[in-house]
């Protein structure tokens, strides 16, 4: 199944499988893929799935353009391994792969102690991570799913889960142990608080909670 892997400064922030005939990407709510950064237009581009695996990308009149392999495009077919650039985001296109059963941003990997499924419906707060280091400093990455994975596979990967009692982070994979406020993140979930600082694969990110 075709998929997109979005990164910032080499850190994976989204992993999306293209199930729909048309998948939109942009800054504004209502898009299938939301990237909250001013370099991304409200409706920036769209991915069209034709047949079983043919995917076309189309720029939707964005302000800063959509680039595939360093070339600005209007509409073209994507090929396995193509690299899409949108502002500070880099999105790798993989033409065909099996959807992972281990972890993904839409996969619930744990349950609450009362065995109730994880849910995003209970908490009224808006959660995000703000990048503090590198050329993408200031970039805000929203936490929108019940479980969202961040990191660089094989190096350091964490999962942030949204429960009724708040947001929690746990280490999932990798050779480098990520930290939260200087403390190593374990396999057991640690609750996140406003302004906590996570360091992941060399990138520092601050957790933000807003009403």
Keywords:
single chain; 211 residues; mainly beta; six-stranded antiparallel sheet
CA gyration radius, whole angstroms:
17 Å
Please give the share of residues in helix.
under 10%
Weakly predicted, low-confidence segments: 98-123
Structural class: mainly beta
The count of helical stretches stands at 0
Got a strand count? 21
Distance between the termini: 37 Å
Taken in chain order, the helices and strands follow as EEEEEEEEEEEEEEEEEEEEE
How much strand? over 45%
Mean pLDDT figure: 83
Give a written overview of the molecule.
By secondary structure, the protein is mainly beta. It contains no helices and 21 strands. The N and C termini lie far apart (37 Å).
Quick recap:
Helices cover 0% and strands 47% of the residues. It contains no helices and 21 strands.
What's the topology here?
Blueprint: E1 3-8, E2 11-17, E3 22-26, E4 33-34, E5 45-50, E6 54-59, E7 67-68, E8 71-72, E9 75-77, E10 83-86, E11 89-94, E12 126-131, E13 140-143, E14 147-152, E15 156-163, E16 166-173, E17 179-180, E18 183-184, E19 190-191, E20 197-200, E21 203-210
Parallel strand pairs: 3-4
Antiparallel strand pairs: 1-2, 1-11, 3-5, 5-6, 6-9, 7-8, 7-10, 10-11, 12-13, 12-21, 14-15, 15-16, 16-19, 17-18, 17-20, 20-21
């Amino acid at each position: 199944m075709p998929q997109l892997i979005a990164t910032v400064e080499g850190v994976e922030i989204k992993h999306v499988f293209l199930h729909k005939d048309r998948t939109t990407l942009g800054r504004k709510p209502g898009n299938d893929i939301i990237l909250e950064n001013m370099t991304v237009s409200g409706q920036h581009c769209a991915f069209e799935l034709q047949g079983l695996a043919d995917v076309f990308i189309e720029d939707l009149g964005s302000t800063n353009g959509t680039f595939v392999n360093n070339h600005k495009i209007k509409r073209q077919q994507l090929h396995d391994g193509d690299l899409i650039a949108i502002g500070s985001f880099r999105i790798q296109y993989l033409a065909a792969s099996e959807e992972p059963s281990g972890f993904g941003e839409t996969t619930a990997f744990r349950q609450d102690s009362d065995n109730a499924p994880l849910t995003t419906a209970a908490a009224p707060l808006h959660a995000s991570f703000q990048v503090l280091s590198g050329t993408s400093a200031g970039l805000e990455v929203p936490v929108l799913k019940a479980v969202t994975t961040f990191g660089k596979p094989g190096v350091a990967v964490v999962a942030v889960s949204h429960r009724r009692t708040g947001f929690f982070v746990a280490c999932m994979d990798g050779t480098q142990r990520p930290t939260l406020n200087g403390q190593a993140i374990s396999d057991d979930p640690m609750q996140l608080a406003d302004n906590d600082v996570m360091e992941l694969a060399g990138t520092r990110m601050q957790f933000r909670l807003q009403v």
